[in-house]
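Contributing new records

If you add data, match the layout below exactly. Sequence lines come first and carry their own label; structure lines follow with theirs. Keep one chain per record. Anything else will be rejected by the validation script.
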Amino acid sequence: MCIRDSLLSAHSHATTIAYRNFHQLIDESQYVLEGTVKSIVAKRHADGRIYTTVEFHAAQVLDSSGKNDLAQPALIRYVGGKEPVYDEEGIYMGYEETYVPGSPTLNINQRYVMFINKNGESIMPLLGWGQGIFTITNGNISDLSMYPVVDLLDSNLVLLNSKSENIKLTNTESKNRSSAPSSKKVSTHNKALSSQFNDLKKAMTL
């Protein structure tokens, strides 16, 4: 059994999410959180929607001074998810789902760094939805498609496409692939932002 409802109206066909470059992610987020997923729980609330609550352990807030440990696990909540359905005898019957197109999929035991805005208030507290979350695996930072973050170019994070060993920009409006940029190609006015990227990347991998 699977019962799905969607937040899309009958006249909607897609979720439109504005592109945000790295500078915008920093400026528009209320804080940057790093943590490892401990649990993911979906539950239907009184408003009829299913909400998912994700608990992170070993949680830290990142800022220019580095990592600041949180005394308690961190929680984020967003609209959507799959709630298990059981019969009167406790036998699993399937699930009910509130489906929100564009919502990222998180995994238990995976470590993430997230740009958070209006947690508990907005449909999705990850700024830019999938744009505002990155994985950390063995000290390497990647986006949700597992493309490693390798550089910053004109405020855009540059991702390495490991399959073709080419570089692509996260901005879908710019060209999808280019050769790996050298440090000389980062313009002078972007040095401060480049330094900000390096500081955050260092904080992510300490």
